[in-house]
Design brief:
The protein is α+β, with helices and mostly antiparallel strands and about 55 residues long. It has two helices and two strands, in the order ββαα.
């Protein structure tokens, strides 16, 4: 969801990912999209296969 990148900030911690924003609509769109991606095995595997590790 590249269109939300400037509207949502992330604070990853060990075992937890926090997403926050002053824009409630953007945060809701992200949460719904993230949930849908997590439930779509093909999509989530594709996303993780392209992830760049720090």
């Amino acid at each position: 969801m590249p269109g939300l990148a400037a509207k949502i900030q992330f604070d990853p911690e060990a075992g937890m990912l926090c997403a926050y924003s002053a824009n409630g609509e953007a945060l809701e769109r992200f949460a719904l999209g993230f949930n849908a991606a997590c439930e779509d095995d093909t999509l989530i595997r594709d996303i993780f296969s392209r992830a760049e590790l720090d």
